[in-house]
Amino acid sequence: MKFFTKKRVVLFLLFIFPLICFLILSTGENNFKKLPVLTENIIDVSEIDASKSVQFKGNVTIVCFLGNDINSIKSGLFNLNEKIYKKFTDYKQFQIIGVYPKGKEEEVQKLKKDIGAFTDMQKWRFISSSKAEIEVFYSSFEFNEPLINLSTTKAFLIDKDVNLRGRLNDEGTGNKLYGYNMNSVSVLNGKLKDDVKVLYYEYYAAFKERNKNKADRKEVGL
After folding, report:
1. C-alpha to C-alpha distance for 186 and 183, rounded to whole angstroms
2. Is 165 helix (H, G, I), strand (E, B) or coil?
3. 78: pLDDT strictly greater than 60
4. Domain at 103, CATH number
5. pLDDT given at position 174
6. Digit-coded pLDDT (tens) for 19-37
7. Phi, psi for residue 87 in degrees, rounded to 5
8. Residue 165 burial (CB count, 10 A)
9. Other Cβ atoms closer than 10 A to 195
10. What is the domain count for the chain?
11. Average pLDDT over residues 91-95
C-alpha cells in the first residue's frame, strides 16, 4: 500500500476530491434548487436615484435602508460589510446599496469613512431620496413589515432582473424570508451568504446551458 502515502492523500483531499465534487455538480441537471422569487419586478432603484448612476438591472444587489437615525443600524451595516461584502466584492456585477433620506448626507459620509477604514468601498453605493419616494420604493417589495423611521434591520437580495429573492420556507419560522437580519451574524453567514452563492450558481448554470445550446446548433449547422 505504498501508493497511499501521506503526501498523496493530502494532495487528493486538497485538489482531486474537490474537483470531482465540482464536476459532479456542474454536469448534473437541476442538482440544485433555485432561489425563489418572492416579488417580481420591484421598482428599480434608478427610479429614485436623481443621478441615475445606480441601478438594479444587470446586477446582484443587496439593498438596505439607513433611515433617519443611521447610528441605530450602524452595527448591522458593519456586520453586512464583514460577513457579506468582503466575501463577494470580487464577484462580477455585485453591489450593496444603502438608501437614505435627503438631509442625512453628513451622517452617510461619516458612515462611509468608518466602514472604509479597512474596506475597499468600490462596490458600496449610497443614494438619497425623498421620504415619499423611499416609502413607495420599499412598498414595491411587498414585504408586510413596515419601515420604522425609514429604516429596517433587514437587508434585501435583488437579482439581475430586478426581482426580490428570498426563501419560501425559512428555517425556524416556516414563513417566507423576504429580508435578512443584519444584526444576526448567524443569519448573514448561514442564510444570506448561501443564498447569494445559489443565485450566482444559477447564472453560472444558465451561462453553461447557453454555451451548450450554441455548440449543439453549430454541430447541426444552424
Report:
1. 9
2. strand
3. yes
4. 3.40.30.10
5. 83
6. 555 544 444 444 458 999 9
7. -80, -30
8. 22
9. 18
10. 1
11. 96
Instruction: Say which range, 28-37, 187-196, 199-208, has the weakest mean pLDDT.
Output: 28-37
- Cα–Cα dist 104/49, whole Å: 15
d(CA 72, CA 150): 12
C-alpha to C-alpha distance for 57 and 152, rounded to whole angstroms: 23
Cβ pair 62, 156 in contact under 8 A = yes
Q: Tens of pLDDT along 107-163?
A: 999 999 999 998 999 999 999 999 999 999 999 999 999 999 999 999 999 999 999
In a domain, residue 24? The reply is no
Rounded to whole angstroms, the Cα distance separating 177 from 36 reads 10
At residue 171, the pLDDT reads 83
In a domain, residue 20? The reply is: no
Length of the chain equals 222
Q: Work out the pLDDT band at 52, boundaries 50, 70, 90.
A: confident
- Report if residue 180 sits inside a domain: yes
3-state DSSP: the chain helix, strand, coil percent, rounded to 5? Answer: 45, 20, 35
Q: In three state form, how does the secondary structure of 163-209 look?
A: CEECECCCCCCCCCECCEECCCHHHHHHHHHHHHHHHHHHHHHHHHH
Distance of CA 178 to the CA centre of its chain: 12
Q: Which residues of 40-179 form beta strands (DSSP E)? A: 60-66, 94-101, 124-129, 151-158, 164-165
Which domain range does residue 128 map to? 37-209
For residue 124, what are the β-bridge partners? 96
Asked, for residue 194, whether it belongs to a domain, the answer is: yes
